[in-house]
Design a protein that fits this description.
Keywords: Membrane, Transmembrane, Transmembrane helix
Region (Disordered): 1-32
Radius of gyration: 50 Å
Distance between the termini: 75 Å
Number of helices: 7
Helix content: 10-25%
Transmembrane segments: 206-224
Number of domains: 3
Number of strands: 25
Strand content: 35-45%
Largest sheet: 6 strands, antiparallel, barrel
Length: 397
């Protein structure tokens, strides 16, 4: 890019830099004083002011169109074509500010005129067409012309910047990169303006931070709860505590008397082996027959026939518990029974002989009894269902 205005060449044509405008000459009778000259640079012009005895002699001088500034962009030689007003140009060099091209044919457009140009850049598998507005800066007799973008930060800037940056870096230009590239398309704001925020912006930032923090806390709570808490699959049944009478052999019930007195026959079973099994009442207490059991009903071994209640005010809970849950309870995890009325009662898991036998058989779920603190369960809770929850402290502490 030419920057020879600061290095005068004796061969330079005066028409290129312009003739200075006529300035007042000092009178013959006055002594000539060497003027002090101040030069102010502006785009396309230079002004020289001469102060002489209070008088000013302005002079203007045109700068070359390719005069260089600190923020100017370099012209890159890459293949492209340009069409302006139906006239086709072969591209020579291109930057974010200017276009150099040579006209294939046609008449001059006129220096200073503005037109909508069609900038076409072809690649191996695709091509890019941009429609910037350009201003004609130079038109030579051999068809070589210089155009300047009328709006360098227009809609064409993101794609053109991506192409030029890729050309400088030696990268491949791809369709994905072309479509996704968006900037930067505007100059950086001064530090003073960038630091200023309106009240609405601050409120929006604080709201976003608060919502983000709340979501993080909720996610952390869910993860912590999953790590420290587990629920058993089977429900818990609350019932009166009593002595259960079961069938010792498979057969048919031939006699049933729940109101029998102590040492009287309570029920009898005709076993499949041909034996008659009689069961006596162990005490003078209440006996409740299980649902579906009556004289003539067939039973299998260990089927529950009836329950004898010695203490009518005692309440207990029992359930089927998984082997994994039983191990956690035995290792110190806190066991809580959540009733369907909303209450949570801490309980202790009591394994029985049936629990041991089921675990030795390899059963995945074993029967256990749950003992709550005295007075936590009353007769009003009989018949309610509950859910068993196991929990442990964080990191086992």
């Amino acid at each position: 890019m030419a920057n020879d205005i600061f290095r005068p060449d004796p061969s330079t044509d005066p028409e290129q830099i312009g003739e200075p405008v006529g300035a007042p000459q000092p009178d013959a009778g006055q002594g000539f004083v060497q003027p002090s000259v101040s030069i102010l640079y502006d785009i396309g012009s230079v002004t020289a002011g001469a102060d002489q005895s209070g008088q000013t002699a302005p002079a203007q001088q045109k700068l070359p169109p390719d005069f260089g500034y600190d923020d100017e962009h370099p012209l890159l030689k890459l293949p492209f074509s340009l069409t302006v007003q139906g006239q086709r140009y072969t591209g020579e060099s291109l930057s974010l500010m200017q276009i150099r091209a040579e006209a294939d044919e046609g008449s001059p457009l006129g220096v200073g005129s503005r037109h909508i140009a069609v900038l076409h850049i072809a690649f191996e598998n695709f091509s890019v067409t941009l429609h910037p507005e350009v201003t004609v800066l130079e038109e030579a007799g051999d068809g070589r012309s210089l155009f300047q973008f009328a709006n360098p930060t227009g809609d064409h800037l993101p794609q053109l910047r991506y192409i030029l940056n890729s050309f400088i870096a030696g990268d491949f230009v791809t369709i994905d990169g072309m479509v996704s590239y968006t900037g930067p398309v505007e100059p950086k704001k001064p530090k003073g303006e960038a630091g200023k925020q309106s009240v609405l912006d601050r409120v929006r930032s604080i709201s976003v931070a608060a919502v983000s923090g709340l979501l993080i806390l909720m996610a952390a709570f869910v993860v912590l709860k999953r790590y420290t808490t587990a629920y058993e699959m089977h429900p818990v049944f609350v019932e009166r505590a009593g002595q259960k009478m079961r069938a010792t052999a498979a057969g048919q019930i031939s006699y049933l008397n729940p109101s029998a007195a102590k040492n009287e026959v309570l029920y009898a079973i005709n076993a499949n082996t041909g034996d008659v099994l009689n069961f006596k009442m162990p005490c003078d207490c209440e006996a409740v027959v299980s649902q579906g059991v009556s004289e003539g009903a067939t039973v299998l071994q260990t089927d529950l026939i009836l329950t004898i209640f010695v203490n009518t005010s005692e309440v207990r809970a029992q359930t089927l518990m998984s082997i994994e849950g039983l191990n956690r309870a035995m290792n110190g995890d806190m066991v809580t029974m959540d009733l369907n009325d909303g209450r949570s009662i801490p309980v202790t898991v009591i394994p029985s002989e049936a629990t041991t036998a089921a675990s030795m058989r390899g059963d995945l779920f074993v029967p256990v009894e749950l003992v709550a603190e005295e007075g936590a369960l009353t007769m009003e809770d009989v018949g309610k269902s509950a859910r068993l929850r196991l929990s442990k402290s964080l990191f086992g502490l």
